[in-house]
Design goal:
Blueprint lengths: L2 H8 L3 E6 L2 E10 L5 E6 L1 H10 L3 E5 L5 E4 L5 E5 L4 E7 L24 E6 L9 E11 L4 E5 L10 E6 L3 E14 L6 E9 L1 H7 L5 H25 L1
């Protein structure tokens, strides 16, 4: 599948996320059993202030331009600051999302170094345009469940999905953009690497979501397991 075809396929799943402190990108990643609720995955730092201070979050569906302001009682946020990942849960009826989800790459099958990936987001230099980027997987950071990618990421693109496509598996989401590390070895900001968190956390959350109440009961258990896993990997690494 060509990148222009991939862009067309994933665009209906993309949202812009605005908070009082900034903007970011997200994508539809989960429904509950009766599809009354949906979840948008993003980088935790995109929604961290709104989560901590109970501030509103505005979500705009890219394809339909449907927008909705969610105050704190109207949504629920799963979050893991350690892996900079979050899922915002809210009523699906507010948006004309596709009925079928794009698959997440299985956690036990991380992407190999050298594969080409693409990602999308709303860069701060033009927050009204959904922009496409591409690059090569440069390294896998096992202790952080993350990838280093030879490609650019700009403020506002954080939380955007990183996608990969094969003839057999079609399009899969392999992670989210969380940061860009410029090369400052000599003082000037030279081209660096993008950091993409993998989908491990999202897989764990998705397994638990049947309703907001069930999600609230399970959240500490899930985040505790993931934090323990990261701690063990870091200690052994």
């Amino acid at each position: 599948m060509q990148w222009n075809q991939i862009m067309s396929k994933i665009s209906p799943y993309i949202v812009k996320i605005e908070t009082p402190s900034g903007i970011g990108t997200g994508f539809l990643c989960v429904y509950n059993s009766d599809k009354s609720l949906c979840g948008v995955a993003t980088a935790y730092h995109v929604v961290a202030d709104s989560d901590e201070w109970e501030q509103p979050i505005r979500i705009t569906h890219h394809s339909s331009k449907t927008t909705k302001l969610f105050k704190e009682p109207d949504r629920f946020i799963f979050r893991s600051p350690k892996v900079d990942s979050a899922i915002v849960i809210f009523p699906k009826s507010d948006f004309p999302f596709p009925e079928e989800l794009i698959k997440l790459l299985p956690s036990e099958k991380p992407l190999d170094i050298g594969n080409e990936v693409g990602w999308v987001g709303f860069p701060a230099i033009d927050i009204y345009s959904l922009c496409f980027f591409s690059g090569i997987i440069s390294a896998r950071k096992e202790t952080l469940n993350a990838y280093l990618i030879d490609g650019v990421a700009i403020n506002g693109v954080s939380g955007g999905p990183v996608v990969y496509s094969t003839e057999t598996e079609c399009v899969q989401i392999v992670g989210i953009i969380t940061a860009y590390q410029a090369n400052r070895q000599r003082g000037d900001a030279l081209p660096g690497l993008s950091i993409a968190q993998d989908v491990s956390y999202f897989h764990q959350v998705i397994k638990t979501i049947n309703s907001v109440d069930e999600a609230k009961k399970k959240k500490p258990e899930i985040e505790g397991k993931l934090d323990e896993q990261i701690h063990i990997k870091t200690k052994n690494g």
